[in-house]
Amino acid sequence: MRIALVQVGYDDDEPLAQRVDRVCALVRSVASAPSGAMSSGRRTQQGPDLVVLPELWAPTGFDYRRWEDAAEPLDGPWVGAMASLAAEVGVTLHAGSFVERLPEPGPDGRTLANTSLLVTADGGRTAYRKIHRFGFGAGEPKLLEAGTDVVTVEIPCGAGESVTAGLSTCYDLRFPELYRRQLDAGAEMFVVPAAWPAARVAHWTLLGRARAVEDQAFVVQCNTAGTHARTEMGGRSQVVAPTGEVLAEAGTDEEVLVVDLDPGLVARTREAFPVLADRRL
Predict the structure, then answer these.
(1) Which are the contacts of 28, defined by CB distance < 8 A and separation ≥ 6?
(2) 222 is catalytic
(3) What is the CATH number of the domain that holds 10?
């Protein structure tokens, strides 16, 4: 299974429409590239099965003032553009997240949500609303409804096979119980788009390795780069194996990682060291 992570870098001066066009061009380039940097020892000529973008890369992760104007429903133009892009390039696209305008206010009275979107080349769509809102009473908790559903999805990886992936977003990474729930739902991989700041990027890398080791699953983390709303982003997107080995890691600037994974490694790791069978809780 080949995956590509697009660590988008941006600042406050780039207009939203221009950034969307630029990122779409990046995805087209990645999907058509004949080869990339591999970490599994294999090199093939096929394009990626999965392309991953970061959290809130279009409306920005920290400039909360833009969210209301950028919000749109699940059948809005941004979602439509991402679905069309996935169909055009023939990949499964985790488009990162966007600010969703909810059809009606939620339990907290909010009308917006931080919603991740995965679209397949044949038109399938899976949405995940971020459960854990970052901000300690400000930012996301003040403006957004919390999601409630644990979401897993089958990602095609060729020859009629697929990998079960659990969807989460950024701050969710700090809450291991969510990943246990995804594990119990069959997850073999966790896909985590983020807008994680540089000030705490060491936690980002450490927590990704922890989730991989404790659940014996692949962890695919796609962060943002650049600076927006006076917040320097951390970059350091990474792919971690079920053993805890970091298969690939980005720097702090805009960058694309392309990695081949062996989905069978999950089962082999769990069989060789059957720690999950000893769970009591």
Answers:
(1) 85, 88, 89
(2) no
(3) 3.60.110.10
pTM summary value: 0.94
The residue annotated as part of the active site, out of 130, 140, 145, 188, is 130
24 is a catalytic site residue = no
Structural domain including 19 reads 2-278
Q: Which of 145, 170, 188, 222 is catalytic?
A: 170
pLDDT in tens, 176-188: 999 999 999 999 9
Q: How many domains does the chain have?
A: 1
Annotated catalytic residue: which of 55, 100, 140, 145?
A: 55
Q: pLDDT by residue (tens digit) across 89-146?
A: 999 999 999 999 999 999 999 999 999 999 999 999 999 999 999 999 888 999 999 9
55: annotated active-site residue: yes
